[in-house]
Specification:
about 55% helix; elongated; 15 helices; five-stranded parallel beta sheet; alpha/beta
Length: about 550
């Protein structure tokens, strides 16, 4: 468990605060009765997250960085013994191991080594999930953007629902049953991606189903031509001028086709070059002249627009440069092919021997046959790969849903049990629905109030806390703003019964009933208030000269 936190930047009425010592189960950070913001409740919860290996304290609170500056947080964990550490905001990727008075030993742990240490000491036997993947989604602080009561599974606002579901399945140790099948699906997807990229970069040919069928017809015709040519050669009935003429026509036809393609590319290249020669006009002087005639012209805004145009022009120039380069590559490839055919044409025209003409004609047919076969083979390979992905996906979804059914039974049963034991008024329990592996619905039937939704999120978190090896839960004060007083008392009673460490911020406690007040007072580890008793001893969101503490 997290045992204590200390920082010499934590100040109360001008004096550095003592170590903040935590309870084994419920830990309350209490704010003012007026619900005053910017006193440090959420910030302290972010610092708790910082002690558990999170980075949001330094990444999402620029005001702390600007007003407090670089500082070090000292903290300890109690497991088989007490372990002491420090972590600084200016070097957060290293955790310093300390002795009992927080003097560095010195021993340094990389951040991933530290979180692995926590995973081991908390005895979390879950493969496929890091410690942060396990705890992060249940550390619900306003700044961390995981307080959407309709999407309680997600770790951050951009996390896809399928990822949230997969990680919850892993947390409940239900993933091993589908691990092998999931690896097969990922392998099939990797092959598909690699194949598509190879086709995109033209390392291998790409054709449509219509072209595939057309190739099959042409293959039959060419095979028949080759057979006929061989038979006529064996019988000695070949006519040299006729055979030469036929072969010359075919070669010239290929050359003409390739030259047309190259000509189109040259036309495209000319367009690209003209576009690339465009230079944005500098209107700076014109803007200044404009201000002489129109006093209210916003020159700054016009300059911003002009800067945007310059940036856009720079991006387009890069794209045009790449397009020009790609076009030249294709032109050179076509030129090489034309040169080969022209050399072959010259050889055929100078040939006086029937056998050489036959060989060249046969070789040309054979090359075309091989090219068509390769196109069709790759087309069939792509169809097979696509089919493998589809079949693996369908089978994986079926297996996923069987594990999801087990997951839902456990969670919904536990949520109903907790709801019924705490909320005596007979309110409905929250329910989690997962109709497919890529989406879910979380709601409390027939009760869509804001307070109810946060109540549902709290019950969900504590259900997972009881059912899994999840070691902690952190809840911010916003989750209680719209909650009825009786529900607040019942919720805090629920926290006390959780059996694991819970960190909760709350304010406006004066109007709560006695039961809630007693629980909060008994488990309070930090009291914050305005005018000198903020977390850092001052509030920096007020203008100087207002008479309030800074």
């Amino acid at each position: 468990m997290l045992k204590e936190i200390y920082c010499d930047k934590f100040v109360s009425y001008g004096k550095i605060r003592n170590k903040i010592v935590f309870n084994p189960v419920l830990n309350v950070i209490e704010g003012s009765d007026t619900g005053k913001n910017s006193i440090g409740k959420s910030t302290f919860l972010m610092i708790i997250d910082f002690c558990f290996g999170g980075n949001d304290y330094i990444e999402k609170l620029p005001d702390v960085k600007a007003n407090v500056g670089a500082h070090t947080v000292y903290f300890s964990f109690e497991f088989d013994k007490t372990y002491h550490f420090s972590r600084s905001t200016d070097n957060p990727n290293e955790i310093i191991v300390c002795n009992s008075d927080y003097t560095p030993i010195p021993k340094v742990l990389k951040l991933n080594e530290f979180t692995e240490f926590l995973k081991e000491k908390y005895s979390i036997p879950i493969s496929g999930l890091s410690f942060r993947q396990i705890v992060s989604r249940f550390i619900r602080v306003y700044n961390r953007e995981n307080l959407d009561e309709q999407l309680p599974l997600r770790c951050h606002k951009n996390e896809p629902e399928r990822v949230s579901i997969a990680e919850l399945i892993k947390l409940f140790k239900l993933f091993d049953e589908i691990k092998e099948l999931n690896e097969q699906y990922e392998d099939a997807c990797s092959k598909k991606d690699a194949f598509n990229k190879a086709q995109a970069y033209r390392y291998i040919p790409k054709i449509t189903e219509k072209e595939y069928n057309s190739n099959k017809i042409e293959l039959q015709q060419l095979t028949a031509e080759a057979t006929e040519l061989a038979e006529r050669s064996d019988k000695g009935i070949l006519d040299l001028p006729a055979e030469k003429a036929e072969l010359i026509v075919k070669i010239k036809s290929e050359i003409t086709t390739l030259k047309r393609q190259r000509s189109r590319l040259f036309t495209k290249l000319d367009v690209y070059k003209k576009d690339a020669e465009y230079e944005p006009i500098n209107y700076q002087k014109d803007f200044n002249d404009l201000s002489e005639f129109f006093n209210n012209v916003n020159i700054e805004h016009l300059e911003e627009v002009e800067n945007f145009h310059r940036k856009l022009s720079f991006i387009l120039k890069k794209e045009l440069k790449k397009a020009i380069n790609d076009t030249w590559i294709n032109i050179n490839l076509l030129s090489d092919a034309i040169k080969q055919y022209e050399t072959e044409l010259e050889q055929v025209q100078n040939t006086t021997n029937v056998s050489k003409v036959v060989l060249k004609a046969y070789a040309q047919i054979d090359r075309r046959i091989e090219s068509l076969k390769k196109e069709n083979d790759y087309h069939l390979q792509k169809k097979q790969i696509d089919n493998d992905v589809k079949q693996n996906s369908e089978e994986l979804d079926k297996r996923y849903m069987s594990q999801i059914a087990i997951l839902l039974d456990r969670i919904n049963t536990k949520m109903a049990e907790i709801n019924n034991s705490i909320y005596k008024e007979g309110t409905a329990a929250p329910v989690l629905y997962i109709p497919n592996p890529k989406s879910y619905i979380f709601e409390t039937p027939n009760d869509m109030g804001t307070g109810t939704k946060y109540k549902g999120m709290i019950i969900f978190d504590l259900s997972v806390l009881q059912l899994t090896s999840l070691p902690i839960v952190v809840h911010d004060s916003i989750m209680f703003v719209s909650m009825e007083n009786e529900r607040v008392e019942n919720t805090f009673a629920l926290y006390e019964q959780s059996g694991k460490q819970v960190f909760v911020a709350i304010d406006r406690t004066t109007n709560l009933n006695d039961g809630a007040k007693n629980i909060i007072k008994k488990n309070r580890v930090l009291l914050l208030s305005p005018n000198g008793n903020e977390l850092f001893g001052r509030a920096w969101n007020k203008q100087k000269g207002s008479g309030d503490a800074q």
